[in-house]
Dihydrofolate reductase family protein
Amino acid sequence: MTKITAGASVSIDGYISGPDESGFEHLFAWYGNGDITIETADPDLPLNVTEPSAAHIRAMIDDTGCFVVGRHLFDITNGWGGKHTLGIPYVVLTHSVPDGWERSTEWYEFVTTGLEDAIAAARRRAGDKNVGLNGGTIVSQALEAGLVDEIDVDLVPVILGGGRPFFRPLEHGPYLLEGPISSVQGNRVTHLRYRVRK
Amino acid sequence: MTKITAGASVSIDGYISGPDESGFEHLFAWYGNGDITIETADPDLPLNVTEPSAAHIRAMIDDTGCFVVGRHLFDITNGWGGKHTLGIPYVVLTHSVPDGWERSTEWYEFVTTGLEDAIAAARRRAGDKNVGLNGGTIVSQALEAGLVDEIDVDLVPVILGGGRPFFRPLEHGPYLLEGPISSVQGNRVTHLRYRVRK
C-alpha cells in the first residue's frame, strides 16, 4: 500500500539549508564519505556512502514510486535536468509551468492546482510504491492536511544557525510521531524514521 | 576535566517548548513512562524512566557539578523552590536578583555580569565535574562564544510547530559537531550526545 513519506537531510537545529542556501557541503557530506558506490541517473554524480547508508538509500529507492517536490527545490536543482538523479519520477507543485518545460513527460509533471492534486498525481505514478515528499513547505502543508504517513530524518551533526527549516511554523499541532521505527548510523548522519500517529 | 555541556529535550522540529509554553507533556513524557524510579530532591517528583534512560540520567547527574540556567527557566520553575530537583547547584544568568531571593546560597547563585561570569561561577562550584547549560538563549550564546564542549539532545518524537527553539538564529556558524558519540533509545526519547568540533 502506498505510504506518503517526507524526508530530508536536517541539521541538529532543524534546517534543510543554511542561511543564503549555504551548508549543503555539511548536510550532504554523507552522500560522499563512504566506500560503497551507488550509481545514479547522472553518470557524473554517483553516491559514495557507507554500507549502512547504502542499505538505507537502496531501500528508499526501491520503495519510492514518485517524489513530490516544491518549486524552490525544482529551481535550485534545475529539475535535475529533466530526470531525477535517483531515476524516480517527480511531480512539481508550482503556480505555473516554467518557461521551456513541457507540462508532463515520462519523468516529471507539473501540477498547478494544489498539494492534494500533486500528491494524487504522484500516487498515480507510484502505483503500489510510496510517494516521497521533499522540501520544507510542502512537507509542512501535507502534515497539516493529515497526508503524511512517515518521516525520514537524516540527522546531520552540524548546527547551521539559520536558513530553511524542515518544518515551518504550523497552524495546528502538536503532531505526535511513533518511533524511531528505524535508526541507522552512517558517517556524519543518523537515519531516523518515524510514523505519524493518526 | 570540566566539560561544558548543553542539553535539552527537543522536538523533531527543534523546539524546547511549544507555542505559549505548551508541549511539555510530550517533551517530558519520557520522565514518567518507565518502571525505574529515580528519586529527586522533591519527594513528590520522582522520575519514572526506562532502564536506558535511567542509566543516561544517572551518568548525567553523577558527572554534572553545576547547572547554568537562564532567567526564563528560573522563572517558570520558580527556581525549583531554591534547590534543583536533581540536587545539583545552579547558577542563574539574569539582569537582576529577583525580589525575595538571596544572591547566593549553597544551592544556587545569581550572576548579573554576563554569561562568561556565570560559567566561571559554575566552574568554581563544579570542581572537577561538568557544567551543564540549560535553556535556549544561553546555549546559543555559549556556542557562539566557543564555550560549549558537548551537546546532549534528548530527541522526542513530536512536531510542536512553533515555540522556543533549542538553538536560536546564530550570528556565526555553521558549527560542526562530532558524533553522535553516544546514542541511547528510551521510551519516546532518543538520547544523542555530540562533541563540538573546535
